[in-house]
Write a structure and sequence with these properties.
The protein is α+β, with helices and mostly antiparallel strands and about 550 residues long. It contains 10 helices and 32 strands. The protein folds into 4 domains: about 100 residues, Immunoglobulin-like (Sandwich); about 120 residues, Immunoglobulin-like (Sandwich), CATH 2.60.40; about 130 residues, Immunoglobulin-like (Sandwich); about 100 residues, no CATH class. It starts with a helix and ends in a 12-residue tail after the last helix.
């Protein structure tokens, strides 16, 4: 016991001393600084050994931080170090493992590119904007980057956000504001950077007006009047959704830079037991796409297995290349009978905006052995038989009293079984299927709406969509198809508007059932009214002075 306790303490000490290295950006320009952070989950007195970094990096200012937290009476201590770094050369560089108390961190990769911008003359303050691409597709991500450069101190800074005109867009903040240093023309600048992810909702052209930075400049001990600094304007061409190839007909439109599928099982699935549920979690990760845009993957059926989907979990995280949308699907799987079962693989077609081609993310099929349910049978007790015990048993069986007693007990046991069966028999109310969960009801209504659209049944289409919307917004359901169109994204919104106008009179434009059916397969919900008003508003950029 003592030996086991010592081993556990040693393993615990090893886990606490884990060294973690992170960088605030893994893509920088040669003349820009970045922050390297080293942290350990222990109150060590040793400093990191960063001598190996000096080969490829210039090491600047260092900051130390010790932290102590108490949770449920348990004390946890940690320590971290932050370094301001600047690369000595361009290229794909590696931050080697860093040692603290003999423990090593994992290596980190960072890409250093040549400077892409030169300052306007000897300007002490200026602002730049850029987009990562000038040509994209509907619903594909465009990264819009704003940088404010300051070589002098400023007072009362304000960033006037640009105006987006042309094609309709949805704007999301892609990560936290970043602060670093940059050396341009031999002059050091403090840089404040903010990145936004722009998602066009229709084809056409996005025109972005210049961003404007206003501040009072502190120079030679004097403060100037309010000065205005403007950036260049930007333009992005948005191409319509390309038709899917024959092998991907009917696939939902998912433009992204990278899409992966992964899965986790709650139990070992090499051998499942019939009747025992197991949970399968399938995670869809799409770089350059919102989590609400990731389509549902319908679980394929397999003979001998029942699949019950649950509510999905939607998340996102910000990376160097923008927003990564994450959708986690959860399925309860119950095997019905024993035997060998092949669980079909999962496939998700998507469009790679970097290579301009359709690709498929896959999970392979699995062969599973289903075991029959366990039947617990009590083994017979081993009884030593002697001539005396055998004679006593014969006398007991032949006795009328014991024979009547055994018969009575047997009859009572049979009556008990009958009573238990009768009481456990489900009533008519219990045999009625339970009400479907909301998301299943919505899926059924959307399927009815697609079927009605393809059949040209306008009345059935309206009814199904209004009933779906009542489940989506139970507190304020839309009263008409026109009102519903204002709450969903294009192209479904545009098609619903045509459907609404077509009921006004014979002179109104006809609606397209095929287009509506296709749009219903992939659409997203627009934010609340209050959020829509601020969707095109960039929060103020407040650089430190």
């Amino acid at each position: 016991m003592v030996r086991r306790l010592i081993v556990l303490m040693l393993f615990g000490a090893t886990a606490q001393a884990e060294v973690v290295v992170t960088v605030d950006r893994n893509r920088v320009e040669l003349n820009e600084s970045f922050t390297l952070e080293i942290s350990v989950d222990s109150n060590t007195t040793s400093d990191p050994d960063i001598s190996a970094l000096e080969v490829d990096f210039i090491i600047g200012q260092r900051r130390d931080l010790s932290n102590t937290t108490i949770v449920n009476g348990q004390i946890k201590r940690s320590r971290s170090w932050s370094y301001s770094m600047m690369a000595r050369r361009a290229g794909d560089l590696t931050i080697p493992p860093i040692s603290v108390d003999g423990e090593l961190s994992q290596p980190q990769s960072i890409r250093v590119i040549e400077p892409t911008y030169e300052p306007p003359g000897e300007a002490d303050v200026f602002i730049t904007t850029e987009v990562d691409t000038t040509e994209t597709y509907v619903q594909a991500q465009v990264l819009y980057r704003i940088k404010v450069y300051r070589a002098v101190a400023t007072r009362q800074p304000t960033l006037r956000e640009p105006i987006f005109t042309g094609a309709e867009v949805v704007i999301e903040v892609a990560g936290d504001e970043r602060n670093y240093e940059s050396i341009l023309g031999g002059k050091a600048y403090a840089v404040n950077e903010r990145v936004y992810a722009v998602f066009p909702q229709e084809s056409g052209q996005i025109e972005i007006s210049p961003a404007r930075f206003e501040a009072r400049v502190l120079r030679d001990g004097r403060i100037t009047g309010r000065k205005v600094f403007t950036s260049e304007s930007q333009t992005v061409d948005v191409k319509p959704i390309p038709p899917a190839p024959a092998e991907f007909q009917g696939a939902a439109w998912l433009p992204a830079r990278d899409v992966t599928l992964s899965e986790e099982w709650s139990e070992d699935i090499e051998q499942l037991v019939a009747g025992e549920p197991v949970t399968r979690n399938v995670t869809i990760s799409a770089l350059g796409q919102l989590e609400t845009q990731i389509p549902v993957i319908e679980p394929p059926s397999a003979a001998g297995v029942n699949v019950y989907p649950d509510q999905p979990e939607l998340n996102r995280r910000s990376e160097t290349d923008g927003i990564r949308g994450i959708r986690k699907e959860q399925y309860a799987i119950i095997a019905v009978t024993g035997g060998d079962v092949r669980l079909p693989g999962l496939e998700l077609p998507w469009y790679n905006v970097e290579t301009n081609e359709w690709q498929v993310a896959r999970l392979p099929e699995r062969d599973v052995s289903i075991l029959p349910p366990d039947v617990l049978v009590a083994p017979p007790a081993e009884v030593a038989v002697t001539p005396e015990s055998d004679a006593a048993a014969v006398v007991a069986v032949q006795s009328p009293f014991w024979r009547r007693t055994a018969e009575l007990l047997g009859a009572l046991w049979v009556l008990t079984l009958i009573a238990w069966w009768w009481s456990s028999r489900p009533s008519r109310e219990e045999r009625e299927p339970p009400q479907l969960p909301v998301y299943k009801q919505q899926a059924r209504l959307l399927k009815q709406a697609r079927k009605a659209a393809l059949a040209g049944d306008a009345s059935g289409l309206r009814t199904a969509m209004i009933e779906w919307a009542a489940l989506q917004w139970p507190d304020r359901p839309p009263r008409s198809i026109g009102e519903l169109a204002g709450r969903v994204s294009s192209p479904l919104a545009d098609e619903l508007k045509l459907l609404s106008r077509s009921s006004y009179g014979p002179g109104e434009p006809a609606w397209d059932g095929d287009a509506i059916a296709k749009a219903i397969r992939s659409f997203s919900l627009l934010p609340e009214a209050g959020k829509e008003a601020g969707a095109d508003t960039l929060p103020p950029l407040m650089p430190q002075t």
